[in-house]
Design a protein that fits this description.
Blueprint: E1 3-9, E2 18-24, H1 33-46, E3 68-70, E4 73-74, E5 96-101, E6 109-111, E7 114-115, H2 118-127, H3 147-157, H4 164-168, H5 175-186, H6 195-209, H7 219-223, H8 231-245
Parallel strand pairs: 1-5
Antiparallel strand pairs: 1-2, 3-4, 3-5, 6-7
The protein binds iron/sulfur cluster and FE2/S2 (inorganic) cluster.
Iron/sulfur cluster binds next to helix 4 and helix 5.
């Protein structure tokens, strides 16, 4: 396949960026989206030009590093799929593909398609620790957790912190991310001791980082590669209100 690419280029966070045109020739349908970009970069570097900066690590859908808006959709056209797991067979010969970074005040562009996601790290740090009674290795069945609760907690723990929910939200809200992290621990017995303090600290940190509030549009749920449900946001709101009321 031969593809026309419009790719966001930006030298650093203080300069204005722009979309630039590139051509990707000899693209195999079996390539991943990031492998296609690797090939474009090899061509650019052979010509002595600056390669396109983009983030990736695992390329297996588990680290949350790849953060591209493809044709206006965070992580591209496949539902429940990170952009590193998107394959070129999803496109046709001659297609034009626009590739941009996440856009949110709290995620400034570092270079080209790379954004600074450290705001998420500070939100997680604000959540603090979990008190666990250390001692001898506990018996595996010492803390009984119902199957329903453990599965709901695991579904929330599936969040990979990619930030697509923020990128897709018109308010740049981090509520789906926040609610995944808060739900994960609020549902488990190990997370009870700091439950109230944790939700207040994390919500306040997210506000301080400049993430917006939620207006229930559901764009976050639609692009989340781990298909985290928006119902987590309702749980987070309940947790937050109860913490403020001290109930
Ligand atoms: S909730 Fe989904 S979209 Fe948001 S950071 Fe987690 S995995 Fe990414
Ligand atoms: S590179 Fe790790 S999730 Fe995409």
């Amino acid at each position: 396949m031969r593809l026309n690419l419009k790719i966001w280029r930006q030298v650093n966070r203080d300069t204005r960026g722009r979309l630039e045109d590139y051509t990707a020739a000899d693209v195999s349908p079996d390539m991943s989206f990031l492998e296609m970009l690797d090939v474009v970069n090899e061509d650019l570097m052979r010509q002595g030009k600056d390669g396109i900066a983009f983030d990736s690590d695992c390329r297996e859908g588990i680290c949350g590093m790849c953060s591209l808006v493809v044709n206006g959709v965070a992580h591209g056209p496949d539902r429940g799929t990170t952009v590193c797991q998107l394959h070129m067979r999803r496109f046709k010969d001659g297609d034009t593909i626009t590739i941009e970074p996440w856009r949110a005040k709290a995620f400034p562009v570092v270079k080209d398609l790379v954004i600074d996601r450290s705001a998420f790290d500070r939100v997680i740090a604000a959540g603090g620790y979990v008190s666990v009674n250390c001692g001898g290795a506990p018996d595996g069945n010492a803390i009984l957790i119902s199957k329903d609760l453990s599965e709901a907690a695991m579904d929330s723990a599936a969040c990979i912190g990619c930030g697509a929910c923020v990128a897709a939200c018109k308010n740049a809200s981090a509520h789906l991310f926040l609610s995944s992290k808060i739900s994960h621990l609020a549902l488990l017995p190990q997370g009870q001791l700091e439950r109230r303090r944790r939700v207040v600290a994390m919500v306040e940190q997210a506000d301080a980082e400049g993430f917006g509030s939620c207006s229930n549009e559901g764009e976050c749920e639609a692009v989340c590669p781990k298909e985290i449900p928006i119902s987590n946001i309702a749980r987070m709101t309940r947790e937050y209100v109860k913490a403020l009321l001290g109930t």
